[in-house]
Amino acid sequence: MSVLFTTISEKNPVTVNDVCSALAKVGGGVKPRAEDEADFVKLLAACHDCAASIDALPDYDVPTDGKRFPRKNVHRVQPSEQVLGAAWAHTFSIKDDFIQGPLSGKTVCLKDCICVAGVPQILGTEIIEPWEPTSDATVVTRTLEAGGEIVGTANCENWCQSTSSFSSAHGTVENPHAAGYSAGGSTSGASALVGAGLVDIAIGADQGGSIRVPAALCGCVGLKPTFGLVPYTGIASNDAINDHAGPLASNTMDTALCLDAISGYDGIDDRCFGAPKPSSTTFAADLAAPSAADLRGFRIGILKEAFEQATVEPRMKTAVLSAANRFKELGATVAEVSVPDHNLGTAIWTIQQRIAGSLSLLGHTTGRRGQGLPALHAARLPWTQEKFDKCFPTTQNTMLNGLYLMERFPSIYAKTLNLIRRLTDSYDRVLKDYDVLILPTTPFVAPRHGTLTTPIATIEPTVGLTCNTAMFDATGHPALTLPVGWLSAKDNKDIYLPVGMQVIGGMWEDGKVLRAAYVWEQSFDWKAMKPVVNGMH
Question: Which residues form the Amidase domain (predicted)?
Answer without folding.
Answer: 97-514
